[in-house]
Design a protein that fits this description.
Glucose Permease (Domain IIA), 22% strand, 9-stranded antiparallel beta sheet, alpha+beta
Length: 251
């Protein structure tokens, strides 16, 4: 009897095992097992690199080399040369500022003494004489009676008619090559019809001797200067040269 019970127990256990195996292999179990989430896959992340900012104002079609040559506003402000200083016209000076000419000018010849009736022997070289406030004269004074005609020393054009504290009534004349400027100062008045831009001929009356500006009323004269113009051709700026030998002084 005991052997029979043992046999039945073994049969029963075997049946349970077969049933369990069949249940586990059924489609529902496979579906349930397949629906379980897969374990996460851990991937090591590459180091983060910030993206380069887009170039403002650079078309997409530009080649990288062209884009790289662009200058940012900050770079531009640091690499730009300083702005050139503006040169103002003299407020009241009978002399002119100096400026280095770009190329050597042609030699001056055949100049006329610019005061009617004055001979070369009467000229006095005052070019290097000292003046107030540490200035050098940079001109010659041609003494003559008030109202004596002032003549154009050369052909040319009236560039500027100017009144200043020191020079008084003045004329700036350019020569035909615009390499030189002639400066006539302390005039009593201009010749009738004289105007800026007017073409004048050598010996033409352009004004009259006076003592306007800082000249002494008791010593009317013409303050006459010649200067080499710079490349900018500014009527108030140039390198002064001595008129005395060019007018035949000392001969």
């Amino acid at each position: 009897m005991s052997r029979f019970l043992l046999f039945l127990s073994g049969v029963l256990l075997g049946a349970i095992g077969v049933w369990f195996a069949m249940v586990m292999r059924s489609p529902q179990a496979v579906t349930a097992k397949a629906s379980e989430p897969a374990p996460p896959v851990v991937v090591a992340a590459a180091p983060w690199t910030p993206a380069a900012p887009a170039s403002i104002g650079v078309p997409v079609s530009l080649a990288p080399a062209a884009a790289a040559s662009m200058v940012t506003p900050a770079q531009a402000s640091s690499s730009m040369p300083p702005a050139a200083a503006s040169t103002m016209a003299p407020a009241g000076s009978t002399t002119v500022a100096t400026a280095t000419p770009a190329i050597p000018p042609p030699p001056l010849t055949g100049l006329l003494i610019p005061v009617d009736g004055v001979k070369a022997g009467a000229l006095i070289d005052t070019f290097n004489d000292a003046r107030s406030q540490g200035r050098v004269h940079d001109a010659i004074d041609i003494m003559s009676a008030r109202g004596t005609p002032v003549l154009a020393a050369d052909d040319g054009k009236v560039e500027k008619l100017f009144t200043s504290k020191q020079g008084g009534l003045t004329i700036y004349q350019f020569d035909p090559t615009t390499a030189y400027a002639y400066y006539y100062a302390h005039l009593d008045r201009y010749a009738d019809g004289l105007a800026e831009g007017k073409t004048v001929r050598r010996g033409e009356v352009i004004g009259y001797v006076g003592s306007t500006g800082n000249a002494s009323p008791d010593a009317p004269h013409l303050h006459f200067a010649i200067f080499v113009l710079g490349p900018e051709k500014r009527w108030w700026q140039g390198t002064a040269i001595n008129p005395y030998p060019l007018l035949g002084g000392g001969r």
